[in-house]
Design a protein that fits this description.
about 100 residues, alpha+beta, four-stranded antiparallel sheet, 1 helix, 4 strands, globular, TTHA1013/TTHA0281-like, DUF1902 domain-containing protein
Amino acid sequence: MSLTLLFSNLFTRTLKLHDCNSVERLINVHIEKLPEGYYLATSEALPGLVAQAESLTETLEIAQDVAKQILAAMAERNQLIESFPAIADEFDCPLVLTK
């Protein structure tokens, strides 16, 4: 994996999730740093995914939990979740570093 340092306050992050069949999936998440200092995560790929916290790391953890809950609800209703690609053998992903 390559290391990408984040210099802007607006970027897209990819969440790694396990679906009900234990297949890892990628879901793009849009991250925005709000003027109040909080981070907000949303996803066009997974409507209903909204997470907010004081740190980027906590926001991503919450977003992953929310995404898992949404996917579980979709699975209960027999809705397709195959639209989220399985993780490839190789891909780039930003790494968030804190001081």
